[in-house]
Design a protein that fits this description.
With 453 residues, the protein is mainly alpha-helical. The protein has helices at 2-24, 29-38, 66-70, 128-133, 135-138, 148-156, 162-168, 183-186, 199-220, 231-236, 244-254, 329-334, 379-388, 428-438, 449-452, and strands at residues 101-104, 109-111, 268-271, 289-292, 301-302, 350-351. The strands form 3 sheets. The protein has a two-stranded antiparallel sheet.
Length: 453
């Protein structure tokens, strides 16, 4: 598995090397240093895993190893044999997510934040994407560094971009590193942390670590990541035409398929602050009520009734086990005293992901996976599930007809959405049309002669 991960990481770096150099010249300094950090394998305990190992541009900023995608869908961490419990979501357009908040008390409905379960709410750094960026570095299942000081130490001492980081964040690296700690050695040992630092040094490390997160969030908010360059974007501008099948798929997406109920496809009007303004004025008179291209998510949480992925490697982890059930949003809420009362109504729910780049892949036969646990291996499969989940009988994983004429039981049977999916009455051709439309959402569209005819 380690060999597979290293090969996938190497491929990602090779695929992005040329474009990365060109793209960096169009980034601000903060975005550019964020990109350097995002692709730096040194920022893991074994110096073998960057953020891009799970969020690669050629696959829409999600998992780039199709062998993993075909099976368990969860990526191995820097430490061999360590796995988290969910597939990596796309990091593109994550910066558009609002702060995590309760939006409807009676329904216990929440929106916003980052991660599948919303646990990066934005409250710490004033930015959900920045909150999220700090998580993987110290997660023993991911980059596994023993202390935030390791991230700061390696960033500040980077021969590639350390000076740029200090230029963007003056004073961030003015830290008197204690001579009692051999940081090169200690940061390569996951059991060494957290380090014993004096209050002044810890405070400086914390500030610099926040600056690292803000840099990553700036890159993730750049036009290189949030490109808005799909065929659908060009269609909205009147610069591209959808095929008859794609147009049919769009109509079904917005209508009979009920996809747009959660994956909003229309242009919205928002203030620069992100507040919906419609035809009214923004609270700040200096703020403009401008058009915002659709992100194809409403940032809410839902339990679709997705079956367990039997190959999820977390079932083999000591913290997991064969009987582990993903609590989703409910698990995060239960950890919060202010929201624990709403946990039961959100058990099994996961964040509605953006559909932008949902079909982006390096070549047509490359396998992507879908759902929080990667149970689905094609867009056709997941659309078919939305359409027939409640129409077809229940079967066991591996039974004949699974994913075609029967579905395994939901991983979590509570709080399943039965009003917007399950028995949509779509024909096979209508399912295919919706898939065809979703393929227009991949960034990097180049118009062909056929498209313009």
């Amino acid at each position: 598995m380690v060999t597979t991960r290293l090969l996938a990481t190497a491929a990602t770096l090779l695929l992005t090397a040329g474009g990365a150099a060109a793209g960096t010249s169009e980034l601000t300094c903060k975005e550019a240093v964020g990109k350097k950090i995002f692709f730096d394998q040194r920022l893991s305990v074994n110096k073998n895993q960057a953020c891009a190992a799970c969020h690669a541009p050629e696959v829409g900023w999600t998992g780039p190893d199709q062998e993993i995608n075909k099976h368990g869908a969860v990526y191995e961490g820097s430490i061999a044999g360590q796995f988290g419990n969910r597939k990596p979501p796309s990091s593109a357009y994550a910066t558009t997510s609002p702060f995590f908040r309760l939006v409807n008390v009676s329904d216990a409905a929440f929106e916003g934040g980052n991660f599948w379960d919303g646990r990066a709410p934005g409250a710490k750094l004033g930015n959900p994407a920045a909150d999220q960026a700090q998580g993987p570095f110290l997660n023993p299942k991911e980059q596994a560094l023993p202390d935030a000081a390791c991230v700061v130490y390696r960033v500040c001492n980077s021969p590639d971009y350390g000076m740029l980081f200090q230029q963007v964040w003056p004073g961030a690296c003015d830290i008197d590193w204690p001579t009692t700690i051999d940081f090169e050695s200690a940061c390569s040992n996951p059991s060494q942390g957290p380090f014993s630092l004096d209050a002044m040094t810890r405070a400086k490390v914390d500030v610099a670590y926040n600056d690292v997160a803000y840099s990553i969030a700036a890159f993730e908010d750049s036009k290189e990541v949030n490109a808005f360059s799909s065929k659908y974007d060009q269609y909205l501008k009147g610069k591209a035409r959808l095929s008859d099948k794609e147009n049919w798929g769009l109509a079904l997406f917005n209508g009979k398929g009920k996809c747009a109920n959660c994956h909003i496809s229309t242009v919205e009007r928002k203030c620069a602050s992100g507040i919906d303004c419609g035809s009214s004025r923004c609270p700040d008179v200096a703020d403009d009520c401008g058009k915002s291209n659709p992100i194809f998510t409403d940032y809410t949480f839902d339990n679709l009734g997705v079956p367990k992925n039997p190959e999820n490697p977390f079932y083999g982890q000591p913290e997991g086990g064969p009987g582990w059930i993903d609590p989703g949003l409910g698990g995060f809420l239960n950890s919060r005293m202010d929201f624990a009362m709403y946990a039961d109504k959100n058990y099994g729910k996961h964040k509605v992901p953006t559909l932008r780049n949902v079909d982006k892949r390096p070549y047509p036969m490359f396998v992507k996976d879908y759902g929080h646990n990667g149970y689905f291996k094609s867009l056709k499969e997941i659309v078919h599930f939305y359409n027939t989940r409640d129409k077809f009988p229940t079967c066991n994983p591996g039974d004949p007809g699974e994913k075609m004429t029967c579905w395994p039981a939901p991983e979590v049977s509570d709080n399943v959405n039965k009003t917007e999916l399950g028995n949509l009455g779509l024909s096979d051709m209508e399912e295919d049309a919706i898939v065809a439309f979703m393929k227009t959402l991949s960034d990097g569209y180049r118009q062909s002669n056929q498209d313009s005819q």
